[in-house]
Amino acid sequence: MYTHDCHDLTAGRTLLQTRPGVPGMDVSSHQGNVNWRTAYNNGARFAYIKATEGTGYTNPYFSQQYVGSYRAGFIRGAYHFGRPDISNGATQATYFLKNGGRWSSDGRTLPGALDIEYNPSCGSSCTPAQKCYNLRKPELGKWIQDFVNTYRKGTGVYPVIYSTADWYNTCVGTYGDFSSVCPFWLACYCPRVITYPYNWKVYTFWQYADSGTFPGDQNVFNGPYSQLQKLAKG
User: Out of 53, 117, 166, 217, which one is annotated catalytic?
Assistant: First the structure.
């Protein structure tokens, strides 16, 4: 995942010990084959695994990561990296559902997540327009809505939405209010949360560092383990 509005990485990496909630992690092909038993023994209890990006990429390590985490005792889910520059949201939700993004009410599978954020094609050199995939706020709001509706229709649950406050408020703003239906996964490498995307008042997941105790990005669930299980059950 790709986070720009981060301020204090050192503080972020100590939050596992100081932040209430359930510790977790997210991984992609960058982590390769993960030692899930060690991560579990070190305290992680949930994981999100990248399944897809756009309409032409699947994580080659997805099976090891998704099945392996389940076998080690994790509550886990899959995520899709959205690429509004490639196709519409409905098409990408369908691709995600066909390649690992489905949900089941077994109490161990989290709703799929949409990672919608900075344009990876240009990174830090993006112009303001490129940062938002050269789309206007209403267009990006509709893109997300189409993804959400398609995922909901295919699974019966709403997806989690991952983003930064900076990108979402800049590129989507008030044209994308999913706060009443989609759990929010905040990316902010900061000592405390101050700013949220439009109309969300609380995070469900917080990605607070890009390395630490566990492989991949470091996360925390905002609540007790029983609440995490409830989310997984739908």
Answer: 117
